[in-house]
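User: I've been trying to design a sequence by hand for this structure and keep getting stuck. Would you show me what you'd pick, starting by listing the structure so we're on the same page?

Assistant: Good idea, let's start from the same input. This is the structure you sent:
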């Protein structure tokens, strides 16, 4: 059984674990970014902007985190 510390480290680094799993399958890293345009509701935009300023992270980073967390 895994200790709590190991579980915490795995959860914090799940993004990198998934990235390495994908590399094993495709032999390509998914570190590059692609520029895309999305349409969001005005309220969603303002919430995202407010959170971005509060945390100091870019809006695209926040979207990346949310998508990875929910997939």
């Amino acid at each position: 059984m895994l200790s709590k510390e190991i579980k915490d480290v795995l959860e914090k680094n799940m993004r990198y674990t998934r990235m390495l799993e994908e590399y094993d399958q495709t032999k390509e890293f998914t570190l590059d970014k692609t520029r895309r345009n999305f349409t969001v509701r005005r309220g969603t935009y303002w919430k995202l902007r407010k959170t971005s300023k509060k945390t100091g992270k870019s809006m695209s980073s926040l979207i990346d985190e949310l998508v990875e967390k929910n997939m």
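That's my pick for every position. To get oriented when you compare it with your attempt: The radius of gyration is 16 Å. The first helix runs from residue 4 to 12.
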